Amino acid sequence: MINQFRKLNPINLVFLLAYTFLMRIAIFYELPAQVNFDFVESFNRLLIYIDLENALSPSANIFFATVVVYVQALIFNRVINNHNLLAKPSFLPGLMFITGTSLFMPFMILSPAMICNFLLIWIIDKFLKLSKSANSITTVFDIGMIIGIGTLIYFPFMAMLLMIFLALMLFRSFNWREWVAGLIGFITIFFFLAVFYYWKDNLSSFYQIWKPLVNKFPSVFKINYNDYLVLIPVAVIIILASLQLRENFFRSFISTRKGFQLLFFMFIVAGASFYLKPQFRISHFLLCVPPGAVLLAYYFSNAKKRWFYETLFLLFALSVQYFLFV
Description:
Elements: H1 2-5, H2 11-22, H3 25-29, H4 52-55, H5 58-82, H6 92-100, H7 112-128, H8 137-153, H9 161-171, H10 176-199, H11 203-207, H12 231-248, H13 254-272, H14 289-302, H15 306-325
Transmembrane segments: 12-29, 62-80, 92-123, 143-168, 180-199, 228-247, 259-276, 282-300, 307-325
Keywords: Membrane, Transmembrane, Transmembrane helix
InterPro entries: DUF6427
């Protein structure tokens, strides 16, 4: 399978679609009785209210989630190929993205984090363009606005503001205007939101938005480790990819090295931002899939021994299915 997706062949669009539905057989086989989907954060209901909880049945919810993931995989695949982060253009980023979004049942249901992955892929593209832009103030301002929109949908997405400064440190020489532009873009979204709340004479609700920022970091976690055994093959592939990346690191283009550094920090920030949400949900970690999928794709793009990487991916896909059914 890996060898097939190493080729940028249009027939892989069909194979990728089939693979997307195949990886979701478990949830289609045993549909949940009820699926809740909050399209936007509760503080934003006054501005946008879409009652999708009652509009979509569980089967419709999961079907549309599958279509959303497939579309995201294609967009993500194009972004990674356009920036030459892998050895050569392929469908591997899309394949790894779909596999990553199939790790857990909650990943397969429509959620705000899933919708925000569209925005995350968009800002990855814009971040990787920073080094190629003579004047990046407009780009950084746009990124700030995108993060602001994402925060309206899913509050922990606000943590991506930190990525603006990390990206500027990686790709640009210091320019205070660029550092301020991202914040202004973010604030612009919430300025108009505040005006709307003031217009509705409900400004007190606007202040409630920022309450999660004073949450204490959780000191106790209730974890069923059996639920996360599926991450063992992921960890193995990431270790192999890291070793391979280290071996080729200084032989890669500077932009490629910086791109992987950016994605590493994005993976950490996306994972750590879960504490901004009072109710922990595993679907939050969908935000870790795009940066993580690039590293997985990097290994399979550069691996030499076909019998080994094909077997490794087969075991990976089968383990995902096994733990989904079990």
